[in-house]
Each structure stands twice: as structure tokens, then as C-alpha cells.
Amino acid sequence: MINLLMGEFKRTWIQFLRYPAEVIGGVIIITSVFYGLFISAQYMAGPAIAFGDRLDAIVVGYVLWTLVIFIVNDVATNLQLEAQTGTLEQVFLSPFGASRVFLARAIASLGLRLTLILTILLIIMGITGSRIQFPLALVLPLVTLLLAAYGLAFVMGACALIFKRVQQVLGIFQFALLFLLAAPTEDWRGPARAFANGLPMIPSTGLLRDLMARGAGLDWGQMGVAIANGLLYFALGMVVFGWAERQAKRRGTLGGY
């Protein structure tokens, strides 16, 4: 497994060196979209607007949504590219197994993704005046968010294995995730809060907003919910991906496109 991880790290680094314009362009586009929304909100609300900590919460939600989109698209996009280039069957014939290969590939690209997200966050903070905090405790809810995000990534990968083309599904899914991650679900109470805790990544997102935007301490009770949520969706993603792999092999459509 160590050799597999090292190989995927090398592959990710080579791709970054060969196609830096794509990465830089993505940073510019994502930052420009948020800045356009920010300027529009300022124009509609007038010069006397005071966002307060709401701006910080919005910035955290937008940046987390960007990170999740990178992750969720990762497995499905890689599967489609492998199918188009005719190398998908080689991945599934690997002694490590397809799920381990794509998981190692996702872990290898995580460092680059986090670096890009931090760059985008710093740029947004500079142009909007937002004051995001970075307490050490944010690592814990961030890990649970990544677990749930990778679980969803493998669900989308399973869809790519079965249906082959899932670009439109991914597009719709991105808007659904934007609503989930941008809504202030941590302020919900009663049945609505219980419902939100069952949705993917929502407990982790609320904790990260509290820590980074509001300066609150870590709620350990909610942290337990976030851990359960992350593990549940990660396990679900691996199970669904395994089922899709077996179905594709049984139908003989693994390498088809």
C-alpha cells in the first residue's frame, strides 16, 4: 500500500507540473465567482451594509463547498478518463484492487486540493476583509468532512461505472451540495436539527463555521455526531462502489464507454 501511495503521489505531482495552467485557472475562476457574488450583494444592500460574522460564515461555507466539489468529482472524473483512454481495465486488474487504487489516488491529490483551497481562502479574505480564524481544533471536524466527502465521491464513482456518463448528474449534485453547505443548519433546532445531522457533511460544516467564523469552542457532543456521520457515509460509499464494480464485471461493461 505504501508503494501504491508513493506512485500516486508521483503521478499527481507530474500532472501538476505538466498542466499548471489548469490549476491556476481554477483558482482564478473560483475566486472571481465569489468576488462577483460579494460585489453584487454589496450593491443590492447599499453602502450601509454590515455583514458582521455572517460574511465569515459565508466564506467558510463557500470554500468548503469548493473543496467538497473537488473531492466528489475526483473519482468519477478519473473513472471516465480511464475509460476514454482505454486503461480502466488495467486499474481493475491491479493487485491492489480498484477501490484501493482510487482511494490512494484521492489521498495523493488531497494535499494539492488543500493547498489550492487555502490559497483561494487567503485571496478571498484579502479582497473581502473577512477575518477567518484557524484554531488547531478545526482539524477534527475537517477530517470527518473529508471522510463523508470521499464516501460521496465513491458513490459518484459507482454511478460512473454503471452509467458511464454522469456529467449532468455531477452538475445537479454540485448545486445540491451548495445548498447543504451554505445553509446555516447549526442554527436549526428540534426535528430540523436532527434531520440536518443525518445529511452528509452537515455536522462537520456547522462545527467548522463555529470554529472559524464565530470563534466558538469545539462542541464535543456535535463532534461525536460528525464522526458518526463521516464514518457512515465513507462506509456507504465503499459498499456502493464495491457493488457497482461487481455489477460492471458481471455485465461485461467494465471497459466500455
Automatic annotation (TrEMBL):
Presence of the UniProt keyword Membrane in the record? yes
Top-level taxonomic group: Bacteria
Question: Any idea which UniProt keywords this protein has?
Answer: Membrane, Transmembrane, Transmembrane helix
Looking up InterPro entries in the UniProt record yields:
Nod_factor_ABC_transporter (IPR051784)
Transmembrane ranges, per UniProt, are 21-45, 57-81, 102-127, 139-162, 169-185, 220-244
Q: This protein is called what?
A: ABC transporter permease
Q: What organism is listed for this UniProt entry? A: Vasconcelosia minhoensis LEGE 07310
